[in-house]
Every structure is written in C-alpha cells, then in structure tokens.
Amino acid sequence: MTFKTKSIAHFLFGCMALNSYATYLQAEPLQSGHWSHLPFWGETVSEMGYELPLPLGFGIYFNNQDVNYKATNDFQVGATGGLLGGLLGKEANYIVPAEDVDISGTDKSIQLKADAWVLPFLNIYGLLGYTEGNKDINVDLSNATRNGNPFNIPVTIPINLEYQAYNYGIGAVIASQIDTIEQIDPIIMTFSAAYTRSNTTVTDSSIETKIAAVRFGQKFESNLGRLTLLLGYQHQSIDQTISGSLTHLSAGGVTIADELNFNADITNVHNNNLSVLANIDFGPKKRWNLTAEYSFLNWNQLTLAAGYRF
C-alpha cells in the first residue's frame, strides 16, 4: 500500500516555553547578564525589578491527537478486478460525493525543541521530530457515479492509511502579564504560533502544519517549585491531499477490488478547541520544567513535555 499526503495548517504544539514569562518580583535580587547576552535589553529589564527566565532551553515533547476530517471535493476511486472493477480487467472510475466520505485520524509524535528568549517578551524555537499516524476512511458508494453514469450500490469501501514522517519546524511565543490587585499575582498571557513541515517515509509527499493559540492563567509559588496553570484557545486547520492505492481489498468475504486507486482533498471538521495546561518549574534557578496540556471540545489532544533551561 502506498499513499501521498500534503497538508497546510493544523497544530500549534501547545505548551511552548512555559517557563516563558517575565515575573515582577521586587523582593528578588536583580539578575546579572547572561553569557549569551540574551535576551536583548534583558539587563535593562532586570534593573527595573523583573525576574527573567534563563534564556536558553531544550525540551522533549510527546503528543497524541485524534481528529475528524471531511473531504473538500468529490472522492475519486479507480477499481480494477473484483466487484467494482471494469470488464475484461479494465479500470472502472468512480466519483463519490464529498458528504459520503467519513474520515478520522490519529497522530502520535515525539519532538525535540531548542528555544531562546531573544527579547524579554519574545521566545523563538526550532523543532525536530518523528510522527506516526493513520487515517481511517469509509467511502459510501450509495450515491456514486461510475465512468460518468449513476452507479448506486450499497457498498462502503474501507481505506486505512498508515504513515511515518520526519518533521522540522519553527515557532514563537509572545508573553506578557496583566497586573490586578496587590493581593493577587499578575495574570499571565501568552500567544503562540508554529509552522512545521513533515516528509513521509513512504513517499516523497509532505505535510505542512500551522497553529496558533492564546493562553492565560496564573502562577503559584510552592516548596516544590513554581506552578503555572493556564486556560487556552487553539486554532488548527488542516488542508491535505491524500492519494494512493490498495490491493486485494475485500469486505464481508467479498472481493471489492484487486487494486483500488484513490485521490481526494480533505480538511479537519473543526478548527477551534480549548485546552488546560499545567507547568512546574523546579530545581536550582528553576532550570527544570514539566508540562502537561489536554485539549478538548472539538478534538482530543494530549501533550507531555520535559525541559531544561540554562
């Protein structure tokens, strides 16, 4: 089985650089300059009484998400042999209305991230990672046409695509805070954006991903470290072209096709989601951090991360 995928949009790798905001702590000693001279204007901000995070960091991210998709145009199928094939071994071509195609997908990935605070409020990062995914596609032929003529048969074609991909990407986090009353810590706000490109190991196809998210919440100091709790809103859009072929396709003991070729453009059904995120910074100078983020409402996504700053 072979296939091609090419997508634009989706996933902001949630929970980017949660040791990510400048915190106003007049009781803390002023920080000396970092050997990297980052962030720019960092010493000036420190002299104003702000505690800045260590500017450089590495992290590892584990992500799992389940997303529903829909076809954006008619699904094209070419069948040879079996129930759907043409006479004398010729290929029969089918056009299936987009609304008769049901698609769901799961992706699991591991990402390595390196980041730097280039400004007191701006973090940029790079990503390298590996993804394993699959898409389950059910094509209902009840309203299909065959070679341009109506050919309505109560048959659903199951198509399963499995793929692996290596990816790279870039992203940025803008962090700020809003002071409230003196008895309450400032409200933290972050805006994140990311772009990744994935190259599959099955074909020369690629997957392009774009994501954006805004998060807000508060931090809490404890004996274990600094705990941050954030509520987030995510925007994810996926535009993808899938094509490929299957051999010896059968259902219910009936051979549907000896060879089945298919092609369609798909997109995710929902673009917007909510998330809750917890992060703890701990250890000397709070160099270590652990993060967990769960996204819900329109799709399920779980991200776990561990990082080190220096």
In short:
The chain has 310 residues and is mainly β.
Task: Describe it.
It is a single chain. The protein is mainly β. The protein has one domain (2-309). The protein contains one helix and 19 strands. It has one helix at residues 42-47; strands at residues 2-8, 23-24, 50-51, 56-71, 75-80, 92-96, 101-119, 122-140, 145-146, 149-150, 156-178, 187-200, 206-221, 226-237, 239-251, 254-268, 272-282, 288-296, 300-309. The strands form two sheets. Strands 4-7-8-11-12-13-14-17-18-19 form a ten-stranded antiparallel barrel. β7 and β8 form a beta hairpin. The radius of gyration is 25 Å and the shape is elongated. The two termini are 46 Å apart.
Secondary structure elements and pairings:
Elements: E1 2-8, E2 23-24, H1 42-47, E3 50-51, E4 56-71, E5 75-80, E6 92-96, E7 101-119, E8 122-140, E9 145-146, E10 149-150, E11 156-178, E12 187-200, E13 206-221, E14 226-237, E15 239-251, E16 254-268, E17 272-282, E18 288-296, E19 300-309
Antiparallel strand pairs: 1-15, 2-3, 4-7, 4-16, 4-19, 5-6, 5-16, 6-9, 7-8, 8-11, 9-10, 11-12, 12-13, 13-14, 14-17, 15-16, 17-18, 18-19
